[in-house]
């Protein structure tokens, strides 16, 4: 699991459910590396501005299963 303040997708089933249950979804796939961490912070800020969009994070290893 990634240590962000976003909601976490921990399986391919979680990913499928998030996409099917929400009209506007942003999924950020990555790791806790120096290039990814700023992206999570920006997404956390955007959550407040874009209430109609559901924001999630997902580890790259799970992306390979989707």
Give the overall shape. flat
Major beta sheet, specifics?
A: 3 strands, parallel
Q: How many domains comprise the coordinates?
A: 1
Within the CATH hierarchy, at the fold level, what is the topology? Glutaredoxin
Q: What's the arrangement of strands in the largest beta sheet?
A: 1-3-2
Can you name the CATH architecture?
3-Layer(aba) Sandwich
What's the helix-strand series?
EHEHEH
CATH superfamily: Glutaredoxin
**At the first level of CATH, what is the class?**
Alpha Beta
How large is the radius of gyration?
11 Å
Describe the structure.
The chain is an alpha/beta fold. It has a single domain (7-63), classed as Glutaredoxin, CATH 3.40.30.10. The protein is built from three helices and three strands. It has a three-stranded parallel sheet with strand order 1-3-2, sandwiched between helices. Helix 2 (37-49) links the parallel strand 2 and strand 3. The longest helix is centred in the middle third of the chain and has 13 residues, at 37-49. The protein starts with 6 loop residues before the first strand and ends with a helix.
């Amino acid at each position: 699991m990634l240590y962000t303040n976003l909601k976490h997708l921990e399986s391919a089933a979680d990913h499928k459910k998030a996409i099917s249950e929400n009209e506007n979804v942003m999924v950020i796939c990555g790791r806790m590396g120096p290039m990814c961490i700023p992206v999570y912070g920006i997404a956390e800020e955007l959550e407040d501005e874009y209430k109609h969009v559901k924001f999630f994070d997902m580890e790259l290893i799970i992306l390979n299963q989707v």
